[in-house]
Design goal:
Radius of gyration of chain B: 25 Å
CATH class of the largest domain in chain A: Alpha Beta
CATH architecture of one domain in chain B: 3-Layer(aba) Sandwich
Distance between the termini of chain A: 67 Å
Strand order of the largest sheet of chain B: 3-14-13-12-15-16
Structural class of chain B: alpha/beta
Strand content of chain A: 5-15%
CATH architecture of the largest domain in chain A: 3-Layer(aba) Sandwich
Helix content of chain A: 40-55%
Oligomer: heterodimer
Radius of gyration of chain A: 24 Å
CATH class of one domain in chain B: Alpha Beta
Shape of chain B: globular
CATH superfamily of one domain in chain B: Nitrogenase molybdenum iron protein domain
Chain lengths: 495, 571
C-alpha cells in the first residue's frame, strides 16, 4: 500500500529542515533532560499526527453498552477476541457488574479467509449457553477491514439454522477508525429499531432514546415518564442489567433491559424523544422511526440543568396532556433556592468541561446557569457540531459566557492539559481521565460521565433532571469549599 | 494423609470427573469434545495431557486477551523511559492506558516515566485505505520532539497487519532519522490464540533490539535478573528489597519498574531467575544461549516458596557468606510473619479456593494459600501452554500448530565476544548431582492434589457451574469475572490488578495477602443478602419444596435464596 515518501522522512525533528542530518544536527536537544513524569503540558507546536491520552473510546464499546441495555441480549463482537476482552474489562471497571460480551475469536486464517464459520459457531454456542432473545453483533476493525458482509453471513446462517423461536439477530457496523464510542452507541440503537420495530395502531406510547447516560439517570427517567402517566419505551435501559442486585441464583444474562416487545412497539408510538443536540437531524433511531413509521422525533439536549430539564418536562407535559407533577415543581424550586444559597461560592469560577460532546453541551449550559464560566469545553468527539450543540443548550443562560468560552472538538487530554495551565480553572468536570490534569493544577475534579474507574459508584452518578442538577450543584459547591478550606492557612470551620 | 475430595455445597463428595461432566453437558458436541481436553481430573504422579494453548471456541466467553495485550500491555509496557506508540485505531491504546497497575517510580535524577502517557496514531478511515505509515513516522517524530526518549516502541494492532503497513521499515527509518532506538512489534491482535503469542513476540523483539546493547561492569558477584515479574501493586519492589537485604543485586526486572538501560545491560547479570515461566521463558533460554547466563524457576509468592527460592539462589552462588545472610534474613522475616500467619490460619484453615488466572499466578498463589492452610480444589491458566501445566519435561512432545508457527522462533548463537558461561560444566554437574535443577519448571499439576480439577481457559459458564456445585470460599480471577463471582456470593480476589491492593510478593507481601484473604473469608456482608422479611419459617418451608410465593420472591431468585446465606453464617 502506501510507502514513505522521501520528503516526509528527511525533515530533521530538531531544526525542521529537510537538508539537515538529524544525528548531527546542532539544534538537537540533549537527551539528559530531567523529566520526572511525562509533562502533559509539553509544547507541541505544529504537531498533530498522534493522539496523546485520548478523550474518546472506540465505537464497538458504545455499541456493546447499548446492546447490554436490551433484555435478553448478548453482544457478539465479530473480530479478534482482544476487543471483547478489553471492552469488557473497561466497562466492568466503571460499572463493577458482570458484563458478558462474546467474540467470534478471529485468528490469522480467519482474518485471511473470512469469519463465516467462526460466526456460525459463535451463534450456536451462545444459544446453548445463554438462551438469548437477541444476538447483537458489532463488527470490529478487523472484520470491517476485511470487508465482512454481515448481511450475507446472516442470510447464510439463517438458511441453515432457522427454526421457530430462534433469537433475533441485529448487526451494527462499528469500525473504530470511523467515529467514537458515541457513534457506536447511537448506531447500535438505530440498528435495534431498524431490525425490530414494527408498525401498529398509534398509541400514547413515547419512545425515549436517552443516549449514553448513567444507570441512575435511566432510573430517574423511568420515574419521570411514569409520573407523567405515559407508557414508554426507554431504549436502551441498562439501569438494572448493569446495576443489579446480588443474585440468589445464577442469571444467564442479568435481568433488566428494554424488553424486545417494547422495541417492536417503538414503531407505533406517538412520539420519539431523542437526547443529544449533536445528533439532531442525523441518521438516528428517532429519525428512522419518523421516516419509516411516521413517529415524530423531538430532538432535545440531555436534560442537565434547569433549562434543558424544563424543555424535557414541557415536552412530556404536551405528550401526556398533563401538567408537570408537583413533585418536579418542588424539586425545581428547591434547586433554585439552593442556587441562591450557594451562589457566592460558585459565581465567576472557571471550569474546564470535557467528555462526550452532548454531555459537555449539557454540563456547559448548567454551569452557565449557576454562574460558573466554562472556559474550555473539550471533547474527543468528531461530529463537528459541538459548538452548535452548546449554543442549542439553554441559549439564554449561555449568552454572556459564550464569548469567553473556548470550544474544542476532536482533542485529546494532552491538548487539554497544554491549555489548562494558562486557563487557570478553579475546577475540572468530567470523567476519571482528567485526574492527572486536575492533580497537576491542584484543583478539584468533579467526576461525572464515563469512564469513572478511580471511584466507586461512578455509574450511579445522577446527572439528569432537577434532581441530578441538585446533586451536581452540591458536589461542585462543596468541592470548591473544600479546596478553599484545605488551602487556607488560617483555616475556617464555619460558613 | 486423608484423601483429597472436592465437596459440593451440601458437603457431599463429588469427583472431578462428575464436576467436569456437569460443566460440559450444555455444550454442542463439537465444543464439548474440545473442552473435554482442557478440563482434567488431576493426577500429579501421572499428569494427563491438557489441550492448553489451543484456540478459544467462538461464542465461549473467555478471559483471554489478544497478542497486542501480551506484547504492549504486559512485557514491554512497564519499561518506563521509552515512549510506546500504538499504531492503530484508538481503542487498543486507550484500553491499555494505565489499566494494568504495573507501577513505576523513577528515583534517580534524569529518570523519566512515560507510563502516564498513551500515544496512538488513532488511525482513521483514510489511513486504513491509503496506509498509515506516514502518520506513524510523524507520530515518532512527535514523540521524539516532545520527550527525547531513550527509545520508541511501536505496536501494530489488527488492521495494521491487514493493510500491510510495514512498521519495521518505519522503525528503521525513524531510528536513522532520530538517532535513537526505534523498534516495531508486529503484535496484531489476531495472531496466536491468546496474549501468550504477544509475550513471545515481545521477548524476541526485546532480545533482538535491546538486550546486550549496554555493557556494564557488575561489581556485585551476586547480580541477577528477575524475569517475568511485572511489579503489579509493587511486587517487584518487595522482591528487590528482600534480595538487597541478602546482598543480591538486581540488574534488571523484566518487566517491572525497569528502564531502558537496565534492559539493555541485563546480559551482564550472572543469573536469571524466572517468576512467570509462560511469559518470559523464551528470554531466559535465549540469554543462556547467547551470553551463558544460567536460569531457573523461582517463586516469591508465599512465605515458604520465597524462602525456598532464596535458598536456591544462595546454593547457586555457593558463597558461604551469602548463604548465611540468606538464612538470617529468612529467620528474621519468618519470625515477624509467623504470628500473623498463625492468627489468620486459625480462621482460614480448611477453606477452599479456586484460581483461574494468567500463566503463572494460578500456580504461584496456591503456595500463598497453602501457607494459611487453604486447599485448592480447582485451578487453571488463562493462556498457558502444556509445559506450564505438566512441566518442561513435555516440551519435546508438544505439537507445533499453525498458530504457534506464526510466531518467529529466532535463531540464537553464542555471542563471540560476550558469551561467558557463569558456571563451568563441572560446576553445573556437581550442583545437579546434589539435586539442583536448571531450566526447571515442573508445572502446576505436579503440585495440585490428585482428583482436583484443572481447567484451562475457563469459560464464564464453567465458572458459574463450579460456583453452583462447589461454592469455594474464595475464587481468584480477574476483573472480567470478579463481579459475576461476587454476585453469586463468593468473594473474588483479582490477581491481575490485585483489587488496587498489594504488594503480595515476598514476606511482607505475604502478610498483606493473608490479611486480605482473612478479610474476604470472614466478612459478614453476605448476611445482608436475604432481608429479614424473607426469612419467615413459612417461606423457608415453601422454599424447601421449591415453591416460593410469587409475591414474596421472584421465581428466579427463590430456590437458593437461603443457601447463599449459609456460608456467611458459618463464617
Amino acid at each position: 500500500m502506501s510507502t514513505l515518501s522521501s520528503q516526509t522522512v528527511s525533515a530533521c525533528a530538531s531544526c525542521n529542515s529537510f537538508d539537515c542530518d538529524p544525528s548531527t544536527c546542532s539544534a538537537r536537544q540533549p537527551v539528559e533532560e530531567i523529566v520526572e513524569t511525562a509533562p502533559f503540558a509539553a509544547s507541541t507546536e505544529g504537531i498533530t499526527a498522534a493522539t496523546r491520552n485520548a478523550c474518546k473510546l472506540c465505537t464497538p464499546l458504545g455499541a456493546c453498552l447499548a446492546f447490554r441495555g436490551v433484555e435478553g441480549a448478548i453482544p457478539l463482537l465479530h473480530g479478534s477476541q482482544g476487543c471483547s476482552t478489553y471492552i469488557r474489562r473497561y466497562l466492568i471497571s466503571h460499572f463493577r457488574e458482570p458484563i458478558d460480551i462474546a467474540s467470534s475469536n478471529f485468528t490469522e486464517d480467519t482474518a485471511v479467509f473470512g469469519g463465516s464459520s467462526n460466526f456460525k459457531t459463535a451463534v450456536k454456542n451462545l444459544r446453548r449457553q445463554y438462551e438469548p432473545e437477541l444476538i447483537a453483533v458489532a463488527t470490529t476493525c478487523l472484520s470491517e477491514t476485511i470487508g465482512e458482509d454481515m448481511k450475507r453471513l446472516f442470510h447464510e446462517y439463517y438458511s441453515e439454522n432457522w427454526e421457530e423461536g430462534h433469537p433475533h439477530m441485529v448487526h451494527v457496523s462499528t469500525a473504530s477508525y470511523r467515529g467514537t464510542h458515541m457513534d457506536g452507541f447511537h448506531n447500535a440503537v438505530r440498528a435495534l429499531v431498524e431490525t425490530l420495530a414494527v408498525s401498529g395502531t398509534r398509541g400514547r406510547r413515547v419512545n425515549l432514546l436517552p443516549g449514553m447516560v448513567s444507570t441512575a439517570d435511566l432510573r430517574h427517567l423511568k420515574e419521570i415518564l411514569a409520573d407523567f402517566g405515559l407508557p414508554y419505551t426507554l431504549l436502551p435501559d441498562y439501569s438494572e442489567s448493569l446495576d443489579g442486585e446480588t443474585w440468589a441464583e445464577y442469571e444467564k444474562l442479568p435481568s433488566g433491559g428494554t424488553p424486545m416487545k417494547a422495541i417492536a412497539e417503538t414503531g407505533s408510538a406517538q412520539l420519539s424523544i431523542e437526547f443529544g443536540h449533536t445528533i439532531a437531524g442525523t441518521k438516528t433511531a428517532g429519525q428512522f422511526l419518523e421516516e419509516k413509521f411516521g413517529v415524530p422525533c423531538r430532538s432535545l439536549g440531555l436534560p442537565i440543568g434547569i433549562g434543558e430539564t424544563d424543555a424535557f418536562l414541557e415536552t412530556l407535559g404536551t405528550a401526556s396532556g398533563r401538567t408537570v407533577p408537583a413533585k418536579y415543581r418542588q424539586e425545581r424550586g428547591r434547586l433554585v433556592d439552593s442556587l441562591v444559597d450557594g451562589h457566592k461560592y460558585v459565581f465567576g469560577k472557571r471550569a474546564i468541561v470535557y467528555g462526550e460532546e452532548d454531555l459537555v453541551a449539557g454540563l456547559c449550559a448548567f454551569l452557565c446557569e449557576i454562574g460558573v464560566e466554562p472556559v474550555l469545553c473539550a471533547s474527543g468527539g468528531e461530529s463537528g457540531r459541538l459548538e452548535e450543540a452548546i449554543k442549542a443548550a439553554h441559549p439564554a443562560a449561555l449568552r454572556k459566557s459564550m464569548a469567553k468560552m473556548e470550544i474544542r472538538s476532536d482533542v485529546d487530554f494532552a491538548e487539554i492539559g497544554e491549555q489548562a495551565e494558562q486557563l487557570k480553572p478553579d475546577f475540572l468536570i468530567g470523567n476519571s481521565k482528567g485526574y492527572k490534569i486536575a492533580k497537576n493544577l491542584n484543583v478539584p475534579l468533579i467526576r461525572c460521565g464515563f469512564p469513572i474507574h478511580d471511584r466507586i459508584g461512578g455509574h450511579r452518578i445522577l446527572h439528569l433532571g432537577y434532581r441530578g442538577a441538585q446533586m451536581l450543584y452540591d458536589q461542585i459547591v462543596n468541592a470548591l469549599l473544600e479546596a478553599k478550606q484545605e488551602g487556607s492557612e488560617i483555616g475556617y470551620s464555619y460558613l | 494423609m486423608s484423601e483429597f475430595e472436592i465437596k459440593t455445597v451440601t458437603g457431599e463428595a463429588i469427583t472431578a470427573q462428575a464436576l467436569k461432566e456437569e460443566m460440559l453437558k450444555i455444550y454442542p458436541a463439537k465444543t464439548k469434545r474440545k473442552r473435554e481436553k482442557q478440563i482434567l481430573s488431576n493426577d500429579p504422579e501421572n499428569t494427563p495431557e491438557i489441550g492448553a494453548n489451543s484456540r478459544t471456541i467462538p461464542g465461549i466467553i473467555t478471559q483471554r486477551g489478544c497478542t497486542y495485550a501480551g506484547c504492549k500491555g504486559v512485557v514491554l509496557g512497564p519499561i518506563h523511559d521509552i515512549v510506546h506508540i500504538t499504531h492503530g485505531p484508538i481503542g487498543c491504546a486507550f484500553y491499555s492506558w494505565l489499566s494494568r497497575r504495573n507501577l513505576a517510580k523513577p528515583v534517580n535524577k534524569g529518570d523519566t516515566n512515560y507510563l502516564q502517557y498513551c500515544m496512538s496514531t488513532d488511525m482513521q478511515e483514510e489511513e486504513i485505505v491509503f496506509g498509515g505509515e506516514k502518520k506513524l513516522a510523524q507520530a515518532c517524530r512527535e514523540a521524539y520532539a516532545l520527550f527525547k526518549p531513550r527509545a520508541i516502541a511501536i505496536y501494530s494492532t489488527c488492521p495494521v497487519g491487514l493493510i500491510g503497513d510495514d512498521v519495521h521499515a518505519v522503525a528503521r527509518k525513524m531510528s536513522e532519522e532520530l538517532g535513537i532506538n526505534v523498534c516495531g512489534f508486529s503484535c496484531e491482535g489476531y495472531k496466536g490464540v491468546s496474549q501468550s503469542a504477544g509475550h513471545h513476540i515481545a521477548n524476541n523483539g526485546v532480545f533482538k533490539h535491546m538486550v546486550g546493547k549496554l555493557d556494564m561492569e557488575q561489581t556485585n558477584p551476586f547480580s541477577i535478573n528477575v524475569l517475568g515479574e511485572y511489579n503489579i501493586g509493587g511486587d517487584a519492589w518487595e522482591i528487590d528489597t528482600l534480595l538487597r537485604k541478602c546482598g543480591i543485586h538486581v540488574v534488571s526486572t523484566l518487566s517491572g519498574d525497569v528502564n531502558y538501560d537496565q534492559v539493555c545491560s541485563s546480559h551482564t547479570a550472572n543469573l536469571n531467575v524466572v517468576m512467570c515461566h509462560r511469559s518470559i521463558n523464551y528470554m531466559a533460554q535465549m540469554m543462556e544461549t547467547k551470553f551463558g547466563i544460567p536460569w531457573f524457576k523461582v517463586n516469591f509468592i508465599g512465605a515458604a516458596a520465597t524462602a525456598k527460592s532464596l535458598r536456591k539462589i544462595g546454593q547457586f552462588f555457593g558463597d558461604k557468606g551469602l548463604i548465611d545472610r540468606i538464612e538470617e534474613v529468612i529467620a528474621a522475616e519468618m519470625a515477624a510473619l509467623a504470628p500473623i500467619q498463625k492468627d489468620v490460619t486459625s480462621r482460614t484453615k480448611g477453606k477452599k479456593v479456586a484460581l483461574f488466572v494468567g500463566g503463572s499466578r494460578a500456580h504461584h498463589y496456591q503456595d500463598l494459600f497453602s501457607d494459611i492452610g487453604m486447599e485448592t480444589i480447582s485451578a487453571g491458566y488463562e493462556f498457558a501452554h502444556r509445559d506450564d501445566y505438566e512441566g518442561r519435561a513435555v516440551l519435546p512432545t508438544i505439537k507445533v500448530d499453525a498458530d504457534s508457527r506464526n510466531i518467529e522462533e529466532i535463531h540464537v548463537e553464542a555471542d563471540p565476544q560476550r558469551y561467558n558461561p557463569r558456571k563451568s560444566p563441572e560446576q553445573i554437574a556437581a550442583l545437579e548431582a546434589g539435586g539442583f535443577t536448571f531450566r526447571d519448571y515442573d508445572g502446576m499439576m505436579k503440585q495440585m492434589k490428585k482428583n482436583s480439577l484443572v481447567i484451562d481457559d475457563i469459560s464464564h459458564h464453567e465458572m458459574e457451574k463450579l460456583i453452583a456445585v462447589c461454592k469455594p470460599d474464595v475464587i481468584c480471577s480477574g476483573i472480567k469475572d470478579k463481579f459475576v463471582i461476587e454476585k453469586l456470593g463468593v468473594p473474588c480476589k483479582q490477581l491481575h490488578s490485585y483489587d488496587y491492593g498489594g504488594p503480595y510478593a515476598a514476606f511482607t507481601g505475604a502478610a498483606n495477602f493473608y490479611k486480605e484473604i482473612d478479610r474476604l473469608t470472614t466478612t459478614k456482608v453476605w448476611k445482608f443478602v436475604i432481608p429479614p422479611w424473607k426469612q419467615s419459617p413459612e417461606l423457608q418451608a415453601s422454599m424447601v419444596f421449591g415453591k416460593a410465593h410469587a409475591e414474596d420472591l421472584t421465581p428466579k431468585r427463590s430456590m437458593k435464596a437461603n443457601k447463599s446465606a449459609e456460608p456467611a453464617e458459618e463464617a
